[in-house]
From TrEMBL:
Protein name per its UniProtKB record: Uncharacterized protein DUF3429
InterPro entries the record matches: DUF3429 (IPR021836)
Residues annotated as transmembrane: 46-67, 74-94, 100-122, 129-148
PANTHER family the UniProt entry points to: TRANSMEMBRANE PROTEIN 69 (PTHR15887:SF1)
The organism of origin for this protein: Rhodovulum adriaticum (Rhodopseudomonas adriatica)
Keywords associated with the record: Membrane, Transmembrane, Transmembrane helix
Length: 149
């Protein structure tokens, strides 16, 4: 694997901020109160985890679609077809109540990591892709899991 480009690493880590904030407001009651009063419920706890988690899962479909443009031969159709799975998962599976949605997102991010590995193995994703996606996915799953405590 090659080194993760600095911009991708910094932006990937910055993308964790809403997940970390949501988990922190779930785990720290005083921070939850502050967030509710200052930002409102949409940007607090399980709600921000659900909203942002759904948006990013759908966004990642676009990333995979971009990788699919590199496909050739027999991989073209599967690469494009699989790229829309995370967005469809978010659309159909998220929305069954706060806790059910969190569970759907955890499974969705797990499935996304499998797709990341497939695109990486097919050399559609950059060689550094899994080095970035593995820790990001682990942190996202941990943050989402905090909402279920």
């Amino acid at each position: 694997m090659t080194a993760i480009p600095r911009a991708a690493l910094i932006l990937g880590l910055a993308g964790l901020i809403p997940f970390l904030w949501g988990a922190a407001t779930v785990l720290i009651p005083s921070l939850d109160s502050f967030s509710q009063d200052s930002l409102g419920p949409r940007f607090t706890g399980i709600y921000v985890l659900n909203f942002y988690g759904t948006i990013i899962l759908a966004f990642m479909s676009g990333v995979l679609w971009g990788f699919a443009t590199r496909a050739q031969g027999w991989t073209i159709w599967p690469a494009y077809a699989l790229s829309v799975v995370p967005a469809l998962w978010a659309f159909f599976m998220v929305g069954g109540g706060p806790e059910g949605s969190i569970m759907a997102l955890i499974w969705g991010y797990g499935g996304l990591l499998v797709l990341d590995a497939i695109y990486w193995a097919l050399r559609l994703a950059p060689r550094w892709w899994l080095a970035l996606r593995l820790p990001l996915t682990a942190i996202v799953a941990a943050c989402l899991s905090a909402a279920l405590l």
